[in-house]
Amino acid sequence: MKRVYVYREDCLHFKVRFLVWQRGIWCVVAAFAYVVISLCV
Predict the structure, then answer these.
(1) pTM (2 d.p.)
(2) Residue 35 to residue 40: CA distance in whole angstroms
């Protein structure tokens, strides 16, 4: 029972980490686009 609980918690951590990573990627993309637009304009 305890092993299943640990597994589920690990799965939850993975989902949270994935969402944070995805958001981080979007922040980098947005910052890069902002710099490119600033240079072009």
Answers:
(1) 0.48
(2) 9
Q: How far is it, in rounded angstroms, from Cα 1 to Cα 9?
A: 13
Please, what sign has the CA dihedral across residues 27, 29, 35, 37? negative
pLDDT at 36 over 90: yes
- Residue 5: which residues within 8 A CB-CB, separation 6 or more? none
CA-nearest of 30, 21, 14 to 6 is 14
- Tokens matching residue 22: 């995805």
Indicate the DSSP class of residue 38: H
